[in-house]
Amino acid sequence: MLRQKTTVIWAVIVTIILTGVIVWQWSLAKVTQEAEHYEKLKTFTEVLSLVKKNYVEEVKDKDLIYGAIKGMLQSLDPHSSFMPPEVFKEMQVETKGEFGGIGIQIGIKDGILTVIAPIEDTPAYKAGVKAGDKIIKINEEQTKDMSLHDAVTRLRGPKGTSVTITLMRKEWDSPRDMTIQRDIIKIHSIKSRVLEDGIGYIKLTQFHEQTGAELEKALKGLEKENINALILDLRNNPGGVLDVSVDVSSRFLPQGKLVVSIKGRKEVKKEYHTGNSKKYYDYPMVVLVNEGSASASEIIAGAFKDHSRSVLVGTKTFGKGSVQTVIPLSDGSGLRLTTARYYTPKGTSIHTTGITPDIIVTPDASKEEDIQLQRAIDILKTWRILKEPPKTG
Prior knowledge:
The chain has helices at about 1-55, 60-75, 85-95, 125, 150-155, 210-225, 240-250, 295-305, 370-385; strands spanning about 80-85, 100, 105-110, 110-120, 135-140, 140, 160-170, 175-180, 185, 190-195, 200-205, 230-235, 260-265, 270-275, 285-290, 310-315, 320-330, 335-345, 360. By secondary structure, the protein is α+β, with helices and mostly antiparallel strands.
């Protein structure tokens, strides 16, 4: 009995010692990590001090610190950025639906400033800027190593002023200049009409907070025209609010269907499912996409493809499958940080790869006819005859 008690006591002592060692090692690792952290910051403060003392011109601490933060964010990925207070305030402008500029959404692809999509009925759209165009210069300033924020700042400006952009396109032998007059850019997210043979058509140009309600209104209007099939046009739609893409999907997919999941480095995977929409629209459906379809557009295209809800027609999408979180900072500035990636219902990452349509139709610049739209119409007519979507692959 005594031997048994002694064994138990020693077991407790060993457990306490082991627990203490583990906690001590964890604490030591944490302290070591923080020490390394501050050791690297020591180099930064050393450089800051040397610049303040020896640089040829006097510089403000704020400019140096902000410049260092910008450089740190630029080293991560093209979509992470630092916004000084005045820029952080300006960021709200676009979501309100009106701003001064030429009307293009831009991103960085393969290290080059690239047009994601021109916004319909804007100066850039009317001037002939196309999705996929590479922006080589803005007002003769090279865009290589230019941040997205700096590019946007240079493109925007008061109504009536002009900006010259130098573009390179696949079909061109050399870059070309376009001088475009800025205007107030008003974003209208939805256009709808009835095409031939009772086929409804809805063009979604962007996803903002009112898109779901605007879509519902458009669908009800088309129903009054007795449509029997639908084309959803997501071409040149650069995306927008994640929740809105789920809201849009909820009108065409049954309740409870997985639309998209997101996962960060440490976060548990978060899933977004279709909600209980007031009405579920189950028309035969074709979705049009191209290289200007990005972000939220790709979420919808990926969900519809994985759930076999529609036939995807067009060209491969842009491939922006990352999630940016906007974080306000204490001095009024802000941080836009990539914190996660999107995954389609079948677990496919669209980041950099995009989504390949079921039926690839490349536009023909020599023809006035929209051959992608015409192909969508033909598919729906065939669908109606066969009573099932045409085979793809």
